[in-house]
Amino acid sequence: MHSGVASPADRRLSALIRHLEGASNAMDSDTITASPTSGFPGARNSVFEHVVRAPEDPILGVTVAYNKDSSPLKLNLGVGAYRTEEYLPIVGLADFNKLSAKLILGADSPAIQENRVTTVQCLSGTGSLRVGGEFLARHYHQRTIYIPLPTWGNHPKVFTIAGLSVKTYCYYDPVTRGLNFQGLLEDLGSAPSGAIVLLHACAHNPTGVDPTPQQWEQIRQLIRSKALLPFFDSAYQGFASGNLDADAHSVRLFVADGGECFVAQSYAKNMGLYGERVGALSIVCKSADVASRVESQLKLVIRPMYSNPPIHGASIVATILKDRNMFQEWTIELKAMADRIINMRQQLFDALRTRGTPGDWSHIIKQIGMFTFTGLNSEQVAFITKEYHIYMTSDGRISMAGLSSRTVPHLADAIHAAVTRVV
Ligand code: PLA
Protein backbone atom coordinates (compact mmCIF):
# COMPACT_ATOMS: atom_id res chain seq x y z
CA MET A 1 0.00 0.00 0.00
CA HIS A 2 1.12 3.51 -0.70
CA SER A 3 1.99 5.15 2.60
CA GLY A 4 1.15 8.66 1.40
CA VAL A 5 4.63 9.93 2.23
CA ALA A 6 7.11 9.70 -0.63
CA SER A 7 10.72 8.88 0.20
CA PRO A 8 13.16 11.81 0.07
CA ALA A 9 14.73 10.30 -3.06
CA ASP A 10 11.33 10.05 -4.78
CA ARG A 11 10.56 13.61 -3.80
CA ARG A 12 13.85 14.90 -5.18
CA LEU A 13 13.36 12.99 -8.39
CA SER A 14 9.85 14.23 -8.97
CA ALA A 15 10.94 17.76 -8.05
CA LEU A 16 13.67 17.51 -10.67
CA ILE A 17 11.26 16.23 -13.31
CA ARG A 18 8.84 19.04 -12.55
CA HIS A 19 11.67 21.54 -12.69
CA LEU A 20 12.83 20.29 -16.09
CA GLU A 21 9.29 20.25 -17.47
CA GLY A 22 8.80 23.78 -16.17
CA ALA A 23 12.03 24.91 -17.81
CA SER A 24 11.08 23.49 -21.21
CA ASN A 25 7.66 25.13 -20.93
CA ALA A 26 9.30 28.44 -20.18
CA MET A 27 11.47 28.07 -23.28
CA ASP A 28 8.42 27.49 -25.47
CA SER A 29 6.87 30.74 -24.44
CA ASP A 30 7.81 33.85 -22.56
CA THR A 31 4.32 34.45 -21.30
CA ILE A 32 3.16 33.68 -17.81
CA THR A 33 0.62 31.16 -19.10
CA ALA A 34 3.28 28.45 -18.98
CA SER A 35 3.81 28.74 -15.26
CA PRO A 36 2.71 25.87 -13.04
CA THR A 37 1.33 28.22 -10.37
CA SER A 38 -0.81 30.30 -12.71
CA GLY A 39 -4.18 29.02 -13.77
CA PHE A 40 -4.51 30.05 -17.39
CA PRO A 41 -5.87 27.48 -19.81
CA GLY A 42 -2.98 25.36 -20.94
CA ALA A 43 -1.09 25.83 -17.71
CA ARG A 44 0.14 22.64 -16.15
CA ASN A 45 -1.63 20.87 -13.35
CA SER A 46 -1.68 21.77 -9.70
CA VAL A 47 1.63 21.75 -7.87
CA PHE A 48 -0.21 19.54 -5.38
CA GLU A 49 -1.46 17.05 -8.02
CA HIS A 50 0.52 14.25 -6.36
CA VAL A 51 -0.96 14.76 -2.88
CA VAL A 52 -2.84 11.60 -1.92
CA ARG A 53 -6.06 11.52 0.03
CA ALA A 54 -5.35 10.85 3.69
CA PRO A 55 -7.63 8.57 5.70
CA GLU A 56 -9.85 10.09 8.39
CA ASP A 57 -8.48 10.19 11.91
CA PRO A 58 -9.36 6.90 13.67
CA ILE A 59 -11.07 8.68 16.60
CA LEU A 60 -12.27 12.08 15.35
CA GLY A 61 -13.13 10.54 11.98
CA VAL A 62 -15.89 8.55 13.69
CA THR A 63 -17.65 11.84 14.41
CA VAL A 64 -17.14 12.95 10.81
CA ALA A 65 -18.87 9.78 9.60
CA TYR A 66 -21.59 10.15 12.26
CA ASN A 67 -22.29 13.74 11.16
CA LYS A 68 -22.76 12.61 7.57
CA ASP A 69 -25.30 9.91 8.51
CA SER A 70 -28.90 11.05 8.12
CA SER A 71 -30.53 8.13 9.96
CA PRO A 72 -32.73 9.14 12.93
CA LEU A 73 -31.34 6.12 14.80
CA LYS A 74 -27.76 7.31 14.70
CA LEU A 75 -25.74 7.21 17.90
CA ASN A 76 -22.14 8.33 18.27
CA LEU A 77 -20.09 6.32 20.79
CA GLY A 78 -16.77 7.25 19.20
CA VAL A 79 -15.04 10.19 20.82
CA GLY A 80 -14.68 10.37 24.60
CA ALA A 81 -16.62 13.55 25.26
CA TYR A 82 -19.57 13.91 27.62
CA ARG A 83 -21.40 15.73 24.83
CA THR A 84 -19.92 15.13 21.37
CA GLU A 85 -20.73 18.67 20.17
CA GLU A 86 -18.04 19.93 22.55
CA TYR A 87 -15.25 19.12 20.10
CA LEU A 88 -14.87 20.93 16.82
CA PRO A 89 -13.64 18.88 13.87
CA ILE A 90 -9.88 18.99 13.18
CA VAL A 91 -10.44 21.71 10.55
CA GLY A 92 -12.56 23.83 12.88
CA LEU A 93 -15.95 25.47 12.55
CA ALA A 94 -17.33 24.99 9.02
CA ASP A 95 -19.24 28.30 8.94
CA PHE A 96 -16.21 30.19 10.17
CA ASN A 97 -14.03 28.66 7.47
CA LYS A 98 -16.43 29.51 4.65
CA LEU A 99 -16.94 33.06 5.87
CA SER A 100 -13.21 33.62 6.37
CA ALA A 101 -12.44 32.58 2.80
CA LYS A 102 -15.16 34.95 1.58
CA LEU A 103 -13.79 37.80 3.67
CA ILE A 104 -10.30 37.59 2.20
CA LEU A 105 -11.05 36.36 -1.34
CA GLY A 106 -14.29 38.27 -1.91
CA ALA A 107 -17.91 37.14 -1.79
CA ASP A 108 -17.99 36.54 -5.55
CA SER A 109 -14.66 34.72 -5.80
CA PRO A 110 -14.76 32.11 -8.60
CA ALA A 111 -12.20 30.03 -6.68
CA ILE A 112 -14.70 29.67 -3.82
CA GLN A 113 -17.61 28.97 -6.17
CA GLU A 114 -15.57 26.25 -7.87
CA ASN A 115 -14.76 24.68 -4.46
CA ARG A 116 -11.05 25.07 -5.16
CA VAL A 117 -10.31 26.62 -1.75
CA THR A 118 -9.72 24.64 1.38
CA THR A 119 -9.89 26.65 4.59
CA VAL A 120 -8.96 25.36 8.01
CA GLN A 121 -9.44 27.21 11.29
CA CYS A 122 -6.09 27.65 13.02
CA LEU A 123 -4.63 29.25 16.12
CA SER A 124 -4.67 32.86 14.94
CA GLY A 125 -2.23 34.14 12.33
CA THR A 126 0.79 32.42 13.84
CA GLY A 127 -0.85 29.00 13.89
CA SER A 128 -2.08 29.44 10.31
CA LEU A 129 1.45 30.20 9.13
CA ARG A 130 2.78 27.23 11.10
CA VAL A 131 0.28 24.74 9.69
CA GLY A 132 0.75 26.07 6.14
CA GLY A 133 4.52 25.90 6.54
CA GLU A 134 4.47 22.31 7.74
CA PHE A 135 2.10 21.22 4.98
CA LEU A 136 4.53 22.70 2.44
CA ALA A 137 7.53 21.03 4.07
CA ARG A 138 5.74 17.68 3.81
CA HIS A 139 4.12 17.95 0.39
CA TYR A 140 5.70 20.65 -1.74
CA HIS A 141 8.70 20.06 -3.96
CA GLN A 142 10.50 23.29 -2.96
CA ARG A 143 11.45 23.78 0.68
CA THR A 144 12.83 27.30 0.38
CA ILE A 145 10.69 30.20 1.54
CA TYR A 146 11.68 33.80 0.82
CA ILE A 147 10.63 36.32 3.45
CA PRO A 148 10.99 40.10 3.15
CA LEU A 149 13.90 41.92 4.78
CA PRO A 150 12.92 43.03 7.33
CA THR A 151 9.78 41.16 8.37
CA TRP A 152 7.83 40.23 11.49
CA GLY A 153 10.47 38.68 13.77
CA ASN A 154 8.54 35.47 14.25
CA HIS A 155 8.37 34.55 10.53
CA PRO A 156 11.84 32.96 10.27
CA LYS A 157 11.26 30.97 13.46
CA VAL A 158 7.82 29.70 12.45
CA PHE A 159 8.95 28.56 9.02
CA THR A 160 12.26 27.06 10.16
CA ILE A 161 10.53 24.98 12.80
CA ALA A 162 7.92 23.94 10.22
CA GLY A 163 10.76 22.39 8.22
CA LEU A 164 11.35 25.01 5.54
CA SER A 165 14.59 26.71 4.69
CA VAL A 166 14.33 30.49 5.06
CA LYS A 167 15.95 33.06 2.78
CA THR A 168 15.26 36.78 2.51
CA TYR A 169 14.43 39.15 -0.33
CA CYS A 170 15.10 42.90 -0.45
CA TYR A 171 12.13 44.90 0.73
CA TYR A 172 12.92 48.09 2.62
CA ASP A 173 15.26 50.87 1.63
CA PRO A 174 16.48 52.68 4.77
CA VAL A 175 17.63 55.67 2.70
CA THR A 176 14.27 56.45 1.11
CA ARG A 177 12.36 54.81 3.96
CA GLY A 178 10.27 53.26 1.21
CA LEU A 179 10.13 50.08 -0.86
CA ASN A 180 13.31 48.84 -2.52
CA PHE A 181 11.28 47.71 -5.51
CA GLN A 182 14.25 47.13 -7.81
CA GLY A 183 15.96 45.00 -5.17
CA LEU A 184 12.76 43.05 -4.58
CA LEU A 185 12.37 42.27 -8.30
CA GLU A 186 16.01 41.26 -8.59
CA ASP A 187 15.91 38.95 -5.57
CA LEU A 188 12.66 37.24 -6.52
CA GLY A 189 13.85 37.13 -10.12
CA SER A 190 16.87 35.09 -9.08
CA ALA A 191 14.99 32.81 -6.65
CA PRO A 192 14.91 29.16 -7.71
CA SER A 193 11.82 28.16 -9.66
CA GLY A 194 9.02 27.02 -7.39
CA ALA A 195 10.33 28.75 -4.26
CA ILE A 196 7.72 29.93 -1.75
CA VAL A 197 7.40 33.70 -1.26
CA LEU A 198 5.96 35.16 1.92
CA LEU A 199 4.07 38.38 1.21
CA HIS A 200 2.39 40.71 3.70
CA ALA A 201 -1.12 41.20 2.29
CA CYS A 202 -1.19 44.81 3.56
CA ALA A 203 0.28 47.01 6.29
CA HIS A 204 3.73 45.45 6.17
CA ASN A 205 5.16 44.81 9.63
CA PRO A 206 7.47 46.43 10.76
CA THR A 207 8.05 48.93 7.94
CA GLY A 208 4.51 50.19 7.18
CA VAL A 209 5.59 50.19 3.52
CA ASP A 210 3.30 48.47 0.99
CA PRO A 211 3.73 48.11 -2.78
CA THR A 212 1.37 50.22 -4.92
CA PRO A 213 -1.31 48.37 -6.93
CA GLN A 214 0.90 48.73 -10.03
CA GLN A 215 3.88 47.28 -8.18
CA TRP A 216 1.72 44.41 -6.90
CA GLU A 217 0.80 43.60 -10.49
CA GLN A 218 4.47 43.51 -11.46
CA ILE A 219 5.24 41.31 -8.47
CA ARG A 220 2.40 38.99 -9.48
CA GLN A 221 3.70 38.69 -13.03
CA LEU A 222 7.19 37.93 -11.81
CA ILE A 223 6.00 35.36 -9.27
CA ARG A 224 3.79 33.59 -11.79
CA SER A 225 6.39 33.68 -14.56
CA LYS A 226 8.90 31.98 -12.27
CA ALA A 227 6.33 29.56 -10.87
CA LEU A 228 7.02 30.85 -7.36
CA LEU A 229 4.36 29.99 -4.79
CA PRO A 230 2.82 33.00 -3.00
CA PHE A 231 2.06 32.66 0.72
CA PHE A 232 0.17 35.70 2.04
CA ASP A 233 0.22 36.72 5.67
CA SER A 234 -2.93 38.77 6.28
CA ALA A 235 -2.75 39.94 9.88
CA TYR A 236 -4.18 43.44 9.38
CA GLN A 237 -7.09 43.27 6.93
CA GLY A 238 -9.08 46.47 7.48
CA PHE A 239 -6.34 48.24 9.42
CA ALA A 240 -4.41 49.64 6.46
CA SER A 241 -7.13 51.60 4.64
CA GLY A 242 -10.11 51.03 6.89
CA ASN A 243 -11.69 49.08 4.03
CA LEU A 244 -11.73 45.28 4.13
CA ASP A 245 -11.90 44.84 0.37
CA ALA A 246 -9.17 47.37 -0.42
CA ASP A 247 -6.86 45.67 2.10
CA ALA A 248 -7.43 42.32 0.39
CA HIS A 249 -6.50 43.68 -3.04
CA SER A 250 -3.08 42.01 -3.25
CA VAL A 251 -4.43 38.56 -2.39
CA ARG A 252 -7.35 38.86 -4.80
CA LEU A 253 -5.03 39.93 -7.59
CA PHE A 254 -3.17 36.62 -7.29
CA VAL A 255 -6.30 34.51 -6.92
CA ALA A 256 -7.88 36.19 -9.96
CA ASP A 257 -5.27 34.71 -12.30
CA GLY A 258 -6.45 31.23 -11.39
CA GLY A 259 -3.13 30.25 -9.83
CA GLU A 260 -2.47 28.60 -6.50
CA CYS A 261 -1.66 30.42 -3.29
CA PHE A 262 -1.71 30.25 0.50
CA VAL A 263 -3.31 32.81 2.82
CA ALA A 264 -2.95 33.00 6.59
CA GLN A 265 -5.58 35.19 8.26
CA SER A 266 -5.68 36.58 11.78
CA TYR A 267 -8.65 38.04 13.62
CA ALA A 268 -6.47 39.18 16.53
CA LYS A 269 -6.23 42.78 15.43
CA ASN A 270 -9.23 43.48 13.21
CA MET A 271 -11.71 41.89 15.61
CA GLY A 272 -9.72 42.46 18.78
CA LEU A 273 -9.72 38.71 19.47
CA TYR A 274 -6.05 38.53 20.48
CA GLY A 275 -6.60 36.13 23.38
CA GLU A 276 -9.00 33.82 21.56
CA ARG A 277 -6.35 32.78 19.00
CA VAL A 278 -8.64 32.73 16.02
CA GLY A 279 -7.40 32.63 12.45
CA ALA A 280 -7.60 30.65 9.25
CA LEU A 281 -5.38 29.09 6.62
CA SER A 282 -6.78 29.00 3.10
CA ILE A 283 -5.11 27.14 0.27
CA VAL A 284 -6.37 28.07 -3.17
CA CYS A 285 -5.89 25.09 -5.49
CA LYS A 286 -6.33 24.41 -9.19
CA SER A 287 -9.27 22.04 -8.75
CA ALA A 288 -11.84 20.93 -6.19
CA ASP A 289 -10.33 17.46 -6.19
CA VAL A 290 -6.85 18.71 -5.31
CA ALA A 291 -8.33 21.01 -2.65
CA SER A 292 -10.08 18.13 -0.91
CA ARG A 293 -6.97 15.95 -0.95
CA VAL A 294 -4.91 18.87 0.36
CA GLU A 295 -7.44 19.32 3.17
CA SER A 296 -7.22 15.65 4.10
CA GLN A 297 -3.46 16.07 4.52
CA LEU A 298 -3.85 19.33 6.46
CA LYS A 299 -5.76 17.29 9.03
CA LEU A 300 -2.73 15.02 9.42
CA VAL A 301 -0.61 18.10 10.13
CA ILE A 302 -3.06 19.49 12.70
CA ARG A 303 -4.13 16.33 14.58
CA PRO A 304 -0.75 15.58 16.23
CA MET A 305 -0.08 19.32 16.78
CA TYR A 306 -3.19 20.34 18.77
CA SER A 307 -5.98 17.98 17.62
CA ASN A 308 -8.58 20.66 16.89
CA PRO A 309 -9.04 24.38 17.43
CA PRO A 310 -11.01 26.12 20.19
CA ILE A 311 -14.65 26.96 19.56
CA HIS A 312 -15.57 30.30 21.11
CA GLY A 313 -13.48 32.80 19.12
CA ALA A 314 -14.48 31.22 15.83
CA SER A 315 -18.15 31.30 16.88
CA ILE A 316 -17.85 35.03 17.62
CA VAL A 317 -16.29 35.67 14.21
CA ALA A 318 -18.86 33.53 12.38
CA THR A 319 -21.74 35.26 14.19
CA ILE A 320 -20.49 38.70 13.16
CA LEU A 321 -19.60 37.78 9.59
CA LYS A 322 -22.95 36.20 8.82
CA ASP A 323 -25.18 38.87 10.35
CA ARG A 324 -25.66 41.82 8.00
CA ASN A 325 -26.12 44.37 10.78
CA MET A 326 -23.26 43.18 12.95
CA PHE A 327 -20.98 43.02 9.93
CA GLN A 328 -21.91 46.59 9.03
CA GLU A 329 -21.25 47.73 12.60
CA TRP A 330 -17.86 46.00 12.53
CA THR A 331 -16.79 47.71 9.31
CA ILE A 332 -17.70 51.10 10.80
CA GLU A 333 -15.62 50.36 13.91
CA LEU A 334 -12.70 49.17 11.78
CA LYS A 335 -12.81 52.36 9.73
CA ALA A 336 -12.81 54.40 12.95
CA MET A 337 -9.73 52.51 14.21
CA ALA A 338 -7.87 52.94 10.92
CA ASP A 339 -8.78 56.64 10.79
CA ARG A 340 -7.64 57.17 14.37
CA ILE A 341 -4.27 55.63 13.54
CA ILE A 342 -3.94 57.84 10.45
CA ASN A 343 -4.83 60.84 12.62
CA MET A 344 -2.14 59.89 15.16
CA ARG A 345 0.40 59.83 12.31
CA GLN A 346 -0.54 63.37 11.35
CA GLN A 347 -0.39 64.57 14.98
CA LEU A 348 3.04 63.04 15.56
CA PHE A 349 4.35 64.44 12.28
CA ASP A 350 3.01 67.93 13.12
CA ALA A 351 4.46 67.76 16.63
CA LEU A 352 7.96 66.97 15.28
CA ARG A 353 7.70 69.75 12.72
CA THR A 354 6.64 72.23 15.40
CA ARG A 355 9.69 71.26 17.44
CA GLY A 356 11.94 71.65 14.43
CA THR A 357 13.25 68.13 14.93
CA PRO A 358 16.07 67.57 12.41
CA GLY A 359 15.29 65.14 9.58
CA ASP A 360 12.52 64.39 7.12
CA TRP A 361 9.66 62.78 9.03
CA SER A 362 7.23 62.51 6.13
CA HIS A 363 7.51 58.70 6.30
CA ILE A 364 5.38 58.89 9.45
CA ILE A 365 2.39 60.00 7.38
CA LYS A 366 3.26 57.91 4.33
CA GLN A 367 3.57 54.56 6.08
CA ILE A 368 0.55 52.25 6.27
CA GLY A 369 -1.05 50.29 9.08
CA MET A 370 -0.46 49.99 12.79
CA PHE A 371 3.25 50.63 12.79
CA THR A 372 5.62 53.47 12.09
CA PHE A 373 9.16 52.43 11.32
CA THR A 374 10.70 55.60 12.72
CA GLY A 375 14.30 55.18 11.61
CA LEU A 376 15.49 55.62 15.20
CA ASN A 377 18.49 53.41 15.93
CA SER A 378 18.76 51.05 18.89
CA GLU A 379 20.80 53.55 20.96
CA GLN A 380 18.15 56.19 20.43
CA VAL A 381 15.43 53.70 21.36
CA ALA A 382 17.32 52.77 24.54
CA PHE A 383 17.72 56.46 25.38
CA ILE A 384 13.99 57.11 24.90
CA THR A 385 13.08 54.19 27.13
CA LYS A 386 15.56 55.18 29.85
CA GLU A 387 14.88 58.92 29.89
CA TYR A 388 11.25 59.07 28.82
CA HIS A 389 9.89 55.66 29.89
CA ILE A 390 8.53 55.04 26.40
CA TYR A 391 8.80 51.44 25.21
CA MET A 392 9.17 50.23 21.62
CA THR A 393 11.01 47.47 19.76
CA SER A 394 14.74 48.09 19.36
CA ASP A 395 14.40 48.43 15.56
CA GLY A 396 12.58 51.74 16.14
CA ARG A 397 9.11 50.42 15.37
CA ILE A 398 6.28 52.16 17.20
CA SER A 399 2.69 50.99 17.36
CA MET A 400 0.56 53.97 16.38
CA ALA A 401 -2.42 52.13 17.84
CA GLY A 402 -0.94 52.65 21.32
CA LEU A 403 -0.68 56.43 20.89
CA SER A 404 -3.27 59.09 21.81
CA SER A 405 -3.51 62.89 21.48
CA ARG A 406 -2.53 63.11 25.13
CA THR A 407 0.72 61.12 24.67
CA VAL A 408 1.85 62.52 21.29
CA PRO A 409 3.69 65.54 22.84
CA HIS A 410 5.62 63.28 25.23
CA LEU A 411 6.70 61.03 22.34
CA ALA A 412 7.62 64.01 20.16
CA ASP A 413 9.76 65.46 22.98
CA ALA A 414 11.47 62.09 23.36
CA ILE A 415 12.18 61.68 19.64
CA HIS A 416 13.44 65.25 19.43
CA ALA A 417 15.82 64.72 22.34
CA ALA A 418 17.00 61.37 20.94
CA VAL A 419 17.86 62.62 17.47
CA THR A 420 19.52 65.79 18.74
CA ARG A 421 21.48 64.16 21.58
CA VAL A 422 22.15 60.53 20.56
CA VAL A 423 23.76 59.79 17.20
N1 PLA B 1 1.80 38.15 11.08
C1 PLA B 1 2.19 39.41 11.27
C2 PLA B 1 2.75 40.17 10.12
C3 PLA B 1 2.07 39.99 12.53
O1 PLA B 1 2.46 41.24 12.70
C4 PLA B 1 1.53 39.24 13.61
C5 PLA B 1 1.40 39.82 14.97
C6 PLA B 1 1.13 37.93 13.33
C7 PLA B 1 1.28 37.42 12.06
C8 PLA B 1 0.57 37.01 14.37
O2 PLA B 1 -0.62 37.40 14.86
P1 PLA B 1 -1.55 36.42 15.71
O3 PLA B 1 -1.69 37.07 17.03
O4 PLA B 1 -2.81 36.41 14.93
O5 PLA B 1 -0.92 35.10 15.80
N2 PLA B 1 2.33 40.81 15.33
C9 PLA B 1 2.23 41.57 16.60
C10 PLA B 1 2.14 40.69 17.80
C11 PLA B 1 0.99 42.47 16.58
C12 PLA B 1 3.17 39.62 17.93
O6 PLA B 1 4.36 39.83 17.65
O7 PLA B 1 2.76 38.49 18.32
C13 PLA B 1 3.46 42.49 16.67
O8 PLA B 1 3.56 43.29 17.61
O9 PLA B 1 4.30 42.43 15.75
Automatic annotation (TrEMBL):
It catalyses: L-aspartate + 2-oxoglutarate = oxaloacetate + L-glutamate. The keyword Transferase applies. Its cofactor is pyridoxal 5'-phosphate. The keyword Transferase applies. GO terms for cellular component: cytoplasm. It comes from the Eukaryota. Pfam families: Aminotran_1_2. Gene3D superfamilies: Aspartate Aminotransferase, domain 1, Type I PLP-dependent aspartate aminotransferase-like (Major domain). In eukaryotes there are cytoplasmic, mitochondrial and chloroplastic isozymes. Homodimer. This is Aspartate aminotransferase. It comes from Forsythia ovata.
